[in-house]
Design brief:
By secondary structure, the chain is mostly helical. It contains 5 helices and no strands. It starts with a helix and ends in a 5-residue tail after the last helix.
């Protein structure tokens, strides 16, 4: 966000905090759910100790279990076009609500 918005790191941090508060308020207002509570998430992954590839496998497995579908074939077919280094950086620095 700092590079994209041409902000200092401190300004970017404050902007991210502001956006997070707005998202949290919206979710509370509409759904009466606390976005910070792991119990309100389908899956929480600490990516500090595993690779993006392993995290992706966990996500795919959870989706397959929840929806009763097989995604592995589609993932393998499209996996070679993913820039894992760029994805890892985006994944590690993103703070989004899903």
């Amino acid at each position: 966000m700092a590079e994209r918005g041409k902000l200092s790191l401190e300004q970017a941090r404050l902007k991210v905090e502001e956006i997070d508060k707005e998202r949290s308020a919206f979710v509370w207002k509409i759904f009466k759910k606390d976005v910070g509570s792991p119990s309100n998430q389908d899956l929480v992954i600490n990516t500090g100790g595993i690779s993006i590839e392993n995290a992706t496998e966990l996500v795919l497995a959870a989706i397959e279990k929840k929806l009763g579908v097989s995604l592995k074939k589609n993932f393998d077919r499209h996996n070679e076009v993913v820039d894992t280094k760029n994805t890892r950086n985006q994944f590690a620095t993103s703070n989004s609500l899903h």
